[in-house]
Amino acid sequence: MSLTKRILLAMVAGIVLGSLCNLLLQSSELADPLRRAVNDWLVLGVFDVVGRMFVASLKLLVVPLVLVSLICGSSSLGDSARMGPIAVKTILFYLATTAIAISIALLAAVVIGPGAGVEMAGDAQFEVAKPPPLTDVLVNIVPSNPVAAMAQGNMLQVIVFALLFGYAISHAGEPGRRIASFFTDMEAVIMKMVGLLMELAPWGVFALLAKLFAEMGISAIMDLAAYFFTVLAVLIFHGLVTYNALLATIARVSPRMMMQKMRSVWAFAFSTASSGATLPITLRTVERRLGVHSSVAGFTVPLGATINMDGTAIMQGVATVFIAQVYGVELSMVAYLTVILTATLASIGTAAVPGVGLVTLALVLEQAGLPVEGIALIIGVDRLLDMVRTAVNVTGDATVAVIVGKSENQLDMAVFNDPRADLESNRK
Fold it and tell me: Are the CB atoms for 313 and 344 separated by under 8 Å?
């Protein structure tokens, strides 16, 4: 059985078992000793420990993989003049897809009206974390201590350092060639580590989803069904229609082939709800299965994991309209345009803030003149939607990598069109 099938099977098993555990824990007929055993030993014990270990092992590879891949890619370019166009194209595509995403979300929410008839309820609290000013964000992109940046997982700083280091290698003559050879070998070793980790993925995915659904249950969705399914529908539309249209019209490649190769990445993204944790798998897939050269993939994918938030933008669009409808506030056309602009720019400006989705939503609500307290209404289902949002985000990262790679003649079409590319490690 292929790795993708094993992961999908683990996802289903985790959701089913977690939901059953939730029903048991909510049952009044279950004896207290048995309830404590299920909750303490199974949910908070086995599921929690295995899930956290799996996520930690994914994060373990993020910094070394990004650093080594980007050094190899930038050093292989030689002529640094090409890095500028790659960077400009990448950032513009990310901003454009984010603007498209939130525009579609706003339109869908206005047509569907998920907040109509919803009563304000709930005791959930949300405290807005003040985002750093844009000037600080720009200054902090340049690392004063690259070792500290790696230790803290500051990806933008790691990217800048790797680009500079790779450029220096390409212009250092014979010493540079020796160093480049070392990093090429290092990249092969790290990719092998990714392959080994992927063999354990079904167990990690199972544990993560089992714990989540044991704690929340399926019933959490029904409390905000209209909002939940509106966000879900727009996420699926953007992930399968918008990206496919961009691939077919701009890159002129087969969207079906790419979507087929992204299934294992989706499974990782869905279970971890973290673009950063999924980064090693996304980067491996983009380079080895989609055929994007490391000089492009090593820049576009890590940057996308940091600033590309199409899925989050969709949530913000629907949530803004939802909260406005709940509070009975009419949004003007100027307010809608403000929401689009704020959410698009905030995708970069608040990239380093923990809980960035809700932070940027707070910014959007303030700009639209809506009460920030409305965020408390949607917190209950946000974790479930976050999993799907992450799958959309990583799809956007891969899509932009393919488009930029094709425009720079850095896309190996033989690898892209080969459905069996890099599947050897997925065989039993």
Answer: yes
Whether the Cβ atoms of residue 34 and residue 45 lie closer than 8 Å to each other = no
Residue ranges of domains in the chain, CATH in brackets: 3-426 (1.10.3860.10)
Contacts (Cβ under 8 Å, ≥6 apart) of 317: 101, 102, 103, 104, 105, 106, 109, 234, 339, 343
pLDDT tens string 293-325: 888 888 888 888 877 888 888 988 999 999 888
Task: Name residues whose C-beta falls within 8 Å of residue 394's C-beta, 6 or more positions apart in sequence.
Answer: 262, 265, 266, 269, 275, 278, 282, 304, 305
Task: Express each pLDDT in 221-261 by its tens digit.
Answer: 665 788 889 999 999 999 999 999 999 999 999 999 999 99
Residue 210, judged by CB atoms within 10 A of its CB (0-12, 13-18, 19+), counts as: buried
- Exposed/middle/buried for 138, CB within 10 Å: 0-12, 13-18, 19+? exposed
3-state SS, the chain, equals CCHHHHHHHHHHHHHHHHHHHHHHHHCCCCCHHHHHHHHHHHHHHHHHHHHHHHHHHHHHHHHHHHHHHHHHHHHHHCCHHHHHHHHHHHHHHHHHHHHHHHHHHHHHHHHHCCCCCCCCCCCCCCCCCCCCCHHHHHHHCCCCCHHHHHHHCCHHHHHHHHHHHHHHHHCCHHHHHHHHHHHHHHHHHHHHHHHHHHHCHHHHHHHHHHHHHHHHCCHHHHCCHHHHHHHHHHHHHHHHHHHHHHHHHHHCCCHHHHHHHCHHHHHHHHHHCCHHHHHHHHHHHHHHHCCECHHHHHHHHHHHHHHCCHHHHHHHHHHHHHHHHHCCCCCCHHHHHHHHHHHHHHHHHCCCCCCHHHHHHHHHHHHHCCCHHHHHHCHHHHHHHHHHHHHHHHHHHHHHHHHHHHHCCCECHHHHCCCCCCCHHHCC
CA distance 371 to 389: 24
| Tokens standing for residue 426 | 């997925």
Number of neighbouring beta carbons within 10 Å of residue 38: 19
CB half-sphere exposure, 403, CA atoms < 13 A:
26
Place of tokens 């790779």: 166
